[in-house]
Amino acid sequence: MSDASFDWREFLGRWQDEWVPRADEDGEEAAVPPGAPGADETAIVAAEERLGRRLPPSYREFLAVSDGWRVDQLAAIHRLGGVADVDWFGDPHDMASLYEEHLDDDPREEDVLLAGMWRRALRLDTESDASYALLDPGDSDADGEWALYVYKGWSGEVPDRYPSFRAYMEAVYRAFHADRAERPDFVNATTRVQDARVEEARLLSLRGRYEEALPLLDEARSFGRPWSGVLLDQVRRLLAPSSGDVAARGSATAGGAGAQGEGEHWDRAVAEAREAARWGPNDAAWRVLREALPRWEAPGPWLIAPVGLLSDPLLGPVITPERGREILATPRAGESGSAPEPVPDLDPPGLAWLTDRPGNREPFDGYRCVWVEGADPARLPSLIGEDGAGLSEPTDPLRASWRAPKPHEREGVELWEDRAVVAVGRTEEGWAFAFDGYSHRSLSTLFRSPAVDASASGRAVVVWCDPRRPTPEAFHLSVAEHGEELYSFTVRGTEIQRSGALPEALDPARLFRPEDSGTDGERRVLQALHTTLGLSLPRLALTRGSLHTFTTRSWTRAPGAGEGYAYLAFVRHRP
User: Fold this and answer.
1) For residue 246, how many C-alpha atoms fall within 13 Å in the half-sphere facing its CB?
2) Are the C-beta atoms of residues 76 and 152 closer than 8 Å to each other?
3) Are 421 and 400 in contact (CB under 8 A)?
4) What H or E segment, with its residue span, contains residue 496?
5) Which helix (H) or strand (E) holds 140?
6) How many CA atoms lie within 13 A of 253 on its CB side?
7) Distance between CA 88 and CA 204 in Å, rounded?
8) Which of 42, 58, 171, 230 could form a disulfide with 166, with the two C-beta atoms 3.0–4.6 Å apart?
9) CB atoms within 10 A of CB 296
10) DSSP letters along 162-184, please?
11) Among candidates 263, 545, 564, which has minimal Cα distance to 423?
């Protein structure tokens, strides 16, 4: 970092002019500006001769303007000495040995530099809180600057590193401002410049130019300027939705999440998008929000984006990092600018994605699903649900399945019963679905397809894929209409059972082949179900969203004469 264009006299003079004590400081010293008269060249050269080294440029220039500096008492370093005070540190506590012990066989360059710094460093502080300000001649750059390390002896942490003395002083200056930012009388040229940058960043953000706004907000926040952190937080939350946003969804509502009250057109779009997301079509919900974004209105001067969407239990999962960037890049609140390239739909078409490994969550090892053509999803509990079943509030399907009581924990439920907790929704093609991907149950010989019950008012399809080890041990398809089964098949290894007039495209002998490995046959039949029957499932809703759930009737029938069954329950006892 070159100091050729940096004016130390202007910088330190401005700092002196702006100096006021913090609210918690008193006494005569607190009101005195921190600087001192500069050292002349003769005194600086004499210090260099005593030390046996020429001082780095930024520190040398600083001494010529101010021979020492008083830092806030709240800082680790309280005072920096002048030319008569600076001396070699000498590592009196043998810190180098401690740091060298922790170097591995292939240490990073920065770790080697830090370990050697203690014996090489020049100590600048004369008053501190059990801390040191150390300039390291062994850690230098092309401009001759030495890195400055601040070691806080009471913290137990490694030293903070600054690339030069100038970088350290600029950081201390920003901290000086941040400590006084809440004082109403702390107004000066610097605060006015930073506040103007906050306003510029706010307008840039509303115009979709958030990347230009980010450095302005970063700098303003380092000075502690009001509202800079609020604006910066909105941008960063949309760039990387966090677990905190997810945790807030449990108690959030459309209004409580801050999604409404931002313009009549936007409120209508949010309601429409929530209704779409409620049943799974994540992409459809996003398209509604995308169309309405330019007409979003900020309800106050310090809201620059609809961040309330992130804590909405239905719309939060819709806002992926890709879509968060699109929100930020879209001009909003009546501001003009270029619209960004739309993010492509994120839900893969069809069903073949069930064989993929999605992101940071395990794939659906086994799954089962009921589709009912043209039905209202809210009707599914009455078609295939247990007695008294109704839809839950939208929830994480994984948690709903794991928390559901097991047969031995429920009064009136036989141990042979297999009641599934299913996530409910609607595909973009208009099929209602009930999906279970988390119970990891195997296809029993006592299996009873719910397709007939589900088809009371139209066509219903049931698919069950056994857990993979590494290929599915069984795969079942059944299709029924108006209470009658049309066709079905079950594949177990090389054995195929079939009934009814199967369409050629769904012939299991054609889809499952002896040479298959892994998920070849499974993927082939899933693709055929999509192209032949138009079946799909919303991946984002099922893997990271919230959907209604209910408990179905048993997917197995009662054992008949001579038929047996086994039921295992694993109970963890805490020691």
Assistant:
1) 11
2) yes
3) yes
4) strand 495-500
5) strand 131-140
6) 3
7) 49
8) 58
9) 24
10) ESSHHHHHHHHHHHHHHHHTT-T
11) 545
Is a pLDDT exceeding 70 seen at residue 574? no
| 72 neighbors 22 (Cβ within 8 angstroms) | yes
- Which helix (H) or strand (E) is 328 found in, with range? helix 321-329
Given a cut of 70, whether residue 242 has pLDDT beyond it is no
Token pair in block for residue 421: 């907790």
- SS3 at position 367: strand
Q: Quote the crossing angle between the two packed helices 41-51 and 57-65, to the nearest 10°.
A: 140
For the stretch 108-148, pLDDT in tens is 999 999 999 999 999 999 999 999 999 999 999 999 999 99
369-393: pLDDT as tens digits: 999 999 999 999 999 999 999 999 9
Beta-carbon count within 10 A of 155 CB: 12
* C-alpha–C-alpha distance, residues 495 and 497, integer Å: 7
One-letter amino acid identity for 86?
A: V
The total number of residues shown for the chain amounts to 575
> 3-class SS at 514?
coil
Q: Which two tokens stand for residue 299?
A: 């309800």
Instruction: Read off φ and ψ for residue 555, nearest 5 degrees.
Output: -85, 0
* Single-letter code of the amino acid located at 70: R
Tokens of 456: 């009371």
Q: Are 160 and 172 in contact (CB under 8 A)?
A: no
Q: Which residues contact 514 (CB under 8 A, 6 or more apart)?
A: 494
Separation between Cα atoms, residue 459 and residue 373, nearest integer Å: 6
Phi, psi torsion values for 16, nearest 5 degrees = -60, -45
SS3 of 550, please? Answer: strand
Q: DSSP class of residue 55?
A: P
- pTM score of the predicted model: 0.84
